[in-house]
Amino acid sequence: MQKILVLLAFFVSSFVRAETDPCESNQYPIKWKSSLSHPESYELPAIFYKTNNSKVIVSVSKAINFVERNMATHKPYLKNAKAFIISSLSELPKNKLVNHSSLWIPTERLQGQELNKAIHVMAGYQGLFEGVLLNNEASVSINEKLISSSNTVYMVGKDPKPAHGLNYVHKIVVSSSDNVVFSKCWLDSK
Fold first, then answer.
1. What is the three-class DSSP state of 51?
2. pLDDT tens by residue, 68-103
3. N or C: less crowded end of the chain, CB within 10 Å?
4. What pLDDT score was predicted for residue 9?
5. Who contacts 109 (Cβ-Cβ below 8 Å, separation ≥6)?
6. Dihedral angle computed from the Cα positions of residues 116, 187, 125 and 104, in that order, rounded to the nearest 10 degrees
């Protein structure tokens, strides 16, 4: 009986360990920290990125400007994703604050170039919010109150259980008073 319990405990611990997401940890070495400042007002129409009780808010004019300057177009699906984002933003009703996820392309039953376009629309919005926020141009609210500053931490560390040769974890966390405003995590080989 004891051998069965030991084997069962080993099996369960192996399963739990395999299910661990390296992006859930904040215990990686810190590469840099910085303070961000945020405008305490924004023009409408605007879009927002929501995390729990916080929002990153970007006016449509700033969003379009950022996408036009920064989003790549060297592949057809990238060009189509960029055009879709700009068109969607341009069509937003005046005086509205809109959740950016409502502007995504539903991915169900999509394949090939259309699926690539939909994925890159999502990635384009992620890059938009990250870029405008880190450039101190995004407004931020916590519990519906605009704040003037937040803190950024960039961490890089080794994944103890790497997959597919991606053994480094990169993580950016923007927070204010223990409220996560924005986070991004990716795995890389270096």
1. strand
2. 999 998 988 899 999 999 999 999 999 999 999 999
3. N
4. 40
5. none
6. 50
CA–CA gap between residue 82 and residue 116 (Å, rounded) = 12
Q: What is the CA radius of gyration of the chain?
A: 20
Amino acid at 3: K
Tell me the CA distances in angstroms from 133 to 35, 41, 77, 117, 152, one per residue in order. Answer: 11, 14, 25, 24, 10
* Helix 112-134 and helix 76-90, axial crossing angle in degrees, nearest 10: 60
To the question of pTM greater than 0.85 for the whole model, the response is no
43 DSSP 8-state letter? P
Render pLDDT for 28-59 as a digit per residue (tens, 0 to 9): 999 999 999 999 999 999 999 999 999 999 99
Residue 130 near residue 166, CB atoms below 8 Å: no
Sign of CA dihedral 23, 28, 29, 32: positive
* HSE (side-chain half, CA atoms, 13 Å) at 185: 14
**155 within 8 A of 33, measured Cβ to Cβ:** no
Structure confidence at residue 96 (pLDDT): 95
Classify 59 as helix, strand or coil: strand
